[in-house]
Each structure stands twice: as C-alpha cells, then as structure tokens.
Amino acid sequence: MTPDRWLELRVRSEVVPPDVLVERLLELGGRAVWEEGGWQVTYLPDPGPDEGVIDLEQAFRHTLPPSDPALTQVATRFQAHEDWAESWKQGLGVRRISPRLLVAPTWVESPPHPDEHVLVLDPGMAFGTAEHGTTRGCLRLLDQVVQAQDRILDVGSGSGILGIAAALIGAAFVRGLEMDEWAVDAARENALRNHVGDRVAFQTLQVTPETLAAEGRWDGVIANMETGRLRPLLAGLVSAVRPGGWIILSGILEHELSGVGEEMVGLGVEFDRSDSDGEWRSALFRSPDPSRGAAT
C-alpha cells in the first residue's frame, strides 16, 4: 500500500563525498537519490511522529565518517503523496532522447512518426523519468545496440524506463530486477501502458553478484545505479552476459569512468564507447566472442 505521505531527506556535506552520502541514503531505505542544488535528496516512508524523524536523522549521521556535525547538513520535511505526484509533473513534457526514441508523460498526447517510439511514463515514486543524465545516456546507448530478438537483463530497473524502451526498440524479452517493491509496481504499470507487458517482467529482488550469476546468460545487461552500488556488482554483471553480448553501465561520474572501465576490462570485457550528459557518463562494454575470433 502506498503511504499517505513521505519524508523528504536532504543532505549535503563539506567533508563527506557525494557518492558516500548517496550510498548511506540508499542503505537507510531511500527511494532513489538525486542531486539538487548541491543537496543529495531522497524520499523515505513516513517514520511516524517527530521522535521517529529525529531518530532517523541521528541514525543517518551515525553511518557517516566522524567529522564536525556542522560540516554536514541534514534537512527533512513531510510531503503528501498527492503533492509529490503533482510536483514532478511540473515542467515535464515530451523529450526526444535519440533519433528513434521519445519519452512522454501520461498527460501529454504524442503520436509517433514512422520509425519512432514514444515511451509513455508515469514513474510514481520510482527513479527514472528521462530527466536525469544517467537515464538519457542509457537510452541513447540502448537505441544504438538493441537488436530484434535480444534478451536483456535490467538490473536496478526503477520505473522500468530502460527495459520498456528496449522492448519498444525491438528486444524480445526483458527481465527487470529491483529491490524496491513500489518501483516494481510502477514498472509493471508502465509496461502495460506501453503495451509491452507480455515481453517485460519485473521482480522484487535484492541483487548480489551471486543472484546475478544465477540469472544465466543474456544478450544484453543494463545497470544504472550509483557507482558505490555498481562496483560490487561488476563481476556478477559480466557473468550474466553471453559471449558477444553487451553491457551498459551508468550512474558514473566523469572522474569515475576510467576506474570503472579498468575494472571491467580486468574482468574480461572490452570498452566500446561512452555517452556524456553533463557530469554523468554511461558506458558500453562488449563481451568478446571467441567464435568470431576463430573465423577466417
């Protein structure tokens, strides 16, 4: 059941790196984290009376490295679910992401032209509206690599935007894994709204390298999440792609790309290309296909 209200938690720090703040907010149960004017922002289910909010703030501070409390600011406020649902509609319209792919909110009519796909999205409380550079970067790379009959694994699927886009472009089947049950509900509704519910399946699952290894081999793997969560999963993501398949990673800041790329190459895949969107980078990797190397 969707809560009547949410707790908005904002943090910023002069001493704690943003990626650490993001990781701690997610560990606390944040719905997803985004940057807004120097603050890292997330929504949490209602913790109850004021004492619950104070306890939550203190619990968050205790997860951070020791420092002067004045150097890390924490701000909270409650927001009714209906107010939040209206707030993210403001200013959202049809967005062209790539030559073939547009994203439109549910309240805007946007009939597609030939060879175009319009993804109609109502994200609810889930992350993924094409308003973030990581999402746009993934979508642009997907439009370049998805082939008809591809089977794709979407790790940390959020609102379902990436998996649904892959299905619209032509993927035969997409499986989305997401730890947030509200996000899974929103993703399933979005898949039905875009008429791909028979080819896209979302599941609530705590993703680990072991669960990824158990997923079998896929033609393509997508993972759009903060680098702090992404890095521990890299070996599992590589194990989930077939020889000759591809992996798209995002949630990577510009200064983090070389390090993530080196780790991926060390795991046996090849760097293909990257997409830049502001400070964010999305990267495409290829799994070598020994059978092609043997051909003459």
Features:
globular, 14 strands, seven-stranded mixed beta sheet, 2 domains, 296 residues, Alpha-Beta Plaits, 11 helices, alpha/beta, Rossmann fold, four-stranded antiparallel beta sheet, 32% helix
Polypeptide structure, described:
- With 296 residues, the chain is of the alpha/beta class.
- The chain has two domains: 5-87, ACT domain (Alpha-Beta Plaits, 2-Layer Sandwich), CATH 3.30.70; 132-294, Vaccinia Virus protein VP39 (Rossmann fold).
- Helix content is 32%, strand content 31%.
- Strands 10-9-8-11-12-14-13 form a seven-stranded mixed β-sheet, sandwiched between helices.
- Helix 4 (133-145) packs parallel to helix 5 (161-169).
- The longest helix has 13 residues, at 50-62.
- The relative contact order is 0.11.
Summarize the structure.
With 296 residues, this protein is α/β, with parallel strands linked by helices. It has helices at 18-27, 50-62, 81-87, 133-145, 161-169, 181-193, 209-213, 227-230, 234-239, 257-266, 290-294; strands spanning 5-13, 34-36, 39-45, 72-80, 95-96, 101-105, 117-121, 151-155, 173-178, 200-204, 218-224, 241-253, 270-277, 280-286. It contains eleven helices and 14 strands.
